[in-house]
Specification:
39% helix; two-stranded parallel sheet; seven-stranded parallel sheet; Rossmann fold
Amino acid sequence: MKKKILVTGGGGFIGSHLIEKLVKKGYLVKTIVPYNIDNSWGWIDTFDATIKKNIEVVTGDICDQNLISNETKKIDIIFHLAALISIPYSYKSPRSYISTNVVGTLNMLEAARENNVELFVQTSTSEVYGSSQYTPIDEKHPLNAQSPYAATKIAADQLALSFFRTFDLPVLVLRPFNTFGPRQSLRAAIPTIVTQLISNKDKIKLGSLKPKRDFTYVSDTVDGFISSIGNKKCFGQTINLGTGKDFSIGETVKNIENILQTKAKIVLDNKRIRPKKSEVNRLISSNLKAKKILNWSPKFKGSKGFEDGLKKTIEWFSNEGNLKLYKSNLYNY
């Protein structure tokens, strides 16, 4: 019998790529997306009809305990991706991050326990490590929340692991490192750079160019999620998903300029600079545990892999129909 999989946040960046791949692999897919007056399902609205017809879409809020309990019935696997993710906005509205990222995750865990799911995958973030104290960062690296966002993700991760230890709920915490690719929000560095450059701007506004990140292409991240299906060795584990190579924001700008064969003046935008103690200076992943337990390794790796991922991303954003969905002239927290 086909597994029925619930993906929260399926209309978002990683979630939309995940449900698309799950449908293509023949799984029964259900997703929860936020209710809105436009009846928008996020990126699911852009799917080919042959994919869309195989997705059961529920509109609602993971903070609604009754809804979550009902929609989790007869579900085999939960991939929990729904979250508030913007770091700058978490400075302004930390309470909303606690509501969604912590209480929402608790609701999902309680529903998973109530309905005896086979696997609950909690989506973490490399931000929970803070600036690297050693590299590459393995799963034993100390946790250091340098933003309210990171603090709520640490809390959510620990809640998930506590349900494994206390109630034997089959939990896996997956920790992606800076996923990038088509459909990503302008809140992330690469779409911000790409959309400004392809809009023929001779100047682009950015924050600090010094932070270094382990950029992981979205299809690799999705493969990491899928590799957990049917894998009991991952229960109770925390596993990084990263390439093991990092690039500074400045280096990333140069890579994108080279691909586009263009050059722009970089204007420092103070609104985009994190408070000094909140800036995470370097994130670079060890993926040895992912290789050992999930048999996962990135296809887009090293300088060549990063360039190939950037080319695919740029190609997608260069499509006029996709680009018009973004407002590259505005900075939105």
